[in-house]
Write a structure and sequence with these properties.
With 310 residues, the chain is α/β, with parallel strands linked by helices. The chain is built from 13 helices and 8 strands. It binds 3-methyl-2-oxobutanoic acid. 3-methyl-2-oxobutanoic acid binds next to strand 6.
Length: 310
């Protein structure tokens, strides 16, 4: 865990000024936030990728402000030093400014220090309204997953010159509206480099090549928590999914073979308590005694269990 992250500190991190690249990862709950924070990231994004990565949906359109707030609060409870940014979900910033500010405020009250929204010039008014309400905003351009149906899938954007020029104009509009940083997702490296040069706020890339001011990856992707085929921009730094399955398999084998739990993994009674309980449970003159307590029957059986101390 490093120094407490702030919006102005992130805003100042243009690589052209000699800064080291910004590092952002997603996190969706307290343990993932703690792991990310211990890893020394600058920003934690409670992304609406929550829908696909954690909740099992096909796209990101299914999560609500309440879903996001629930997960933002869990991340906040981890007490990260990294700046916590929360995604505004689809339809939470599209209708009117008051609705947008109210939704963003719910995420801030849950623990976010900034919000992120997708789209360019068409969202500039909403960005300005949020900034006016003292809510810092991160933009998101290129492959914007909330536009999956318009894009016809999760496909690389701005491959043609005209689309690249439009993206550049969108980035300038977001900057002018007050965004403190802009995520560039799924665009050619040269386009991301051009946008990064053109705007004064830092860009954070994902599938956008090496010339952004920072990089972001989804937590589960970089740790290899799922064995599905990842997009080519994902670099896996671990294979935790395979490790986790192997661990569960070993647990199942130990239980089935009677190797778990071991003596050291069990709680024990004092000898005299165990002996008196056990004799009360034997048939005979004491059989009228209450039978409510049963002595465990695992391992070497109840007799051995009763003999063990503590
Ligand atoms: O929701 C998310 O995880 C994101 C990142 C891919 C930038 O928006």
């Amino acid at each position: 865990m490093g120094q407490q992250g702030t919006v102005p500190a992130v805003r100042s991190r243009k690589r052209a000024t000699g800064s080291t690249p910004l590092v952002m990862v997603t996190a969706y709950d307290a343990p993932t936030a703690r792991i990310a924070d211990r890893g020394g990231v600058d920003l934690i994004l409670v992304g609406d990728s929550l829908a696909m990565v954690v909740l099992g949906y096909e796209d990101t359109l299914q999560v609500t402000v309440d879903d996001m707030a629930h997960h933002v609060a869990a991340v906040r409870r981890a007490g990260p030093a990294a700046l916590v940014v929360a995604d505004l979900p689809w339809m939470s910033y599209h209708l009117d400014e008051a609705d947008t500010v109210r939704n963003a405020a719910s995420l801030v009250r849950a623990g976010a220090q900034a919000v992120k929204l997708e789209g360019g010039r068409r969202r500039a008014g909403m960005v300005a309204a949020l900034v006016d309400a003292e809510i810092p905003v991160m933009g998101h351009l290129g492959l914007t997953p909330q536009s999956v149906h318009v894009m016809g899938g999760f496909t690389v954007q701005a491959r043609e010159a005209e689309a690249a020029r439009t993206l550049l104009a969108d980035a300038r509009a977001l900057q002018d509206a007050g965004c403190f940083a802009i995520v560039l997702e799924g665009i050619p490296d040269v386009v991301a480099g051009m946008v990064t040069e053109a705007v004064e706020v830092p860009t954070v890339g994902i599938g956008a090549g090496p010339w952004c001011d920072g990089q972001v990856l989804v937590f589960h992707d970089l740790l290899g928590l799922e064995e599905r085929k990842a997009p080519k921009f994902v670099r896996r730094y671990a294979s935790l999914g395979a490790d986790a399955s192997a661990a569960v398999e070993a647990f199942a084998a130990d239980v089935r073979a009677g190797r778990f739990p071991a003596d050291a993994e069990s709680y024990h009674l004092k000898d005299e308590v165990a002996a008196s309980l056990w004799s009360a449970a034997q048939p005979g003159p004491a059989a009228d005694a209450p039978q409510a307590i049963s002595v465990g029957s695992g391992g070497g059986g109840p007799t051995e269990g009763a003999r063990r101390s503590r």
